[in-house]
Amino acid sequence: MTVEGVQTGEKEYAGDVTVQEAWEMLKSRPDTVLIDVRTNAEWGYVGIPDLSSLSKETKLVSWILFPDMSVNPSFLDGVKAAQPDPSAPVLFLCRSGVRSIAAAIAATKAGFSESYNILGGFEGDMDENRHRGKTGGWKVADLDWVQS
C-alpha cells in the first residue's frame, strides 16, 4: 500500500497512539516532540495544538506542500531540526492520521526509532455527513489548541 508518497508494509514505525496518549507522552517525557505535518494553510485556517501549558511548542513541518501537494523535499531536515535526538519520541499529527503515518515511516527510515502516528489527527474522522470535528481527533478530545 502507498500512503502519500511512502510505500508501506508491516508496521514500519513505532506505532499508533491516541490523542490522549500523545498528550500524556508530551507531559511525562520531556524529550518528546510533537510535529504537525499538515500544510501552512491548515495551520493558519484550522489551528494547531497548543502545548504552552506543558512549556513546549508544536513543531510545524509539512509532509506535503500546499498548493501543489507534492512531498516536501526538506521534510527530514525539518524533523532533525525539531528533534535533534533520533532516539527520543517524535509524535506526528495531521488532519486525520494518514499523512502522519507516511511521516512516521519516513522518519523511522531516517533513524528516528520512536516515530509515532497520532490516530484521528487534529480534526478526526469524517462522520456520516462527511464532516470532520465530531469523531476523534485532537480538537474533539478537547485538548488545547489555538487558531490564528
Describe this protein's structure.
- The chain is of the alpha/beta class and 148 residues long.
- The chain has one domain (2-146): 3-Layer(aba) Sandwich (Oxidized Rhodanese, domain 1).
- The chain has four helices and eleven strands; from the N terminus they run βββαβαββββαβαββ.
- It has helices spanning 19-28, 40-46, 75-82, 99-109, and strands spanning 2-3, 6-7, 15-17, 33-36, 48-49, 59-60, 64-65, 70-71, 90-93, 115-118, 145-146.
- A five-stranded parallel beta sheet has the order 3-10-9-4-6. It has a two-stranded antiparallel ribbon with strand order 1-2.
- Strand 7 and strand 8 form a beta hairpin.
- The protein starts with a strand and ends with a strand.
- Residues 1-8 have low confidence and may be disordered.
Number of strands: 11
Q: Sketch the topology as an H/E string, one letter per element.
A: EEEHEHEEEEHEHEE
Amino-to-carboxy terminus distance: 36 Å
So, CATH architecture? 3-Layer(aba) Sandwich
Count of DSSP-assigned helices: 4
Strand order of the largest sheet: 3-10-9-4-6
What is the typical, i.e. mean, pLDDT? 89
Here the CATH topology equals Oxidized Rhodanese, domain 1
- CATH class term: Alpha Beta
Dominant shape: globular
Number of domains: 1
Residue share in β-strands: 15-25%
Structural class label? alpha/beta
Oligomeric assembly: single chain
Q: Helical percent range?
A: 10-25%
Write the layout of secondary structure elements.
Layout (H helix, E strand, L loop, with lengths): L1 E2 L2 E2 L7 E3 L1 H10 L4 E4 L3 H7 L1 E2 L9 E2 L3 E2 L4 E2 L3 H8 L7 E4 L5 H11 L5 E4 L26 E2 L2
Parallel strand pairs: 3-10, 4-6, 4-9, 9-10
Antiparallel strand pairs: 1-2, 5-11, 7-8
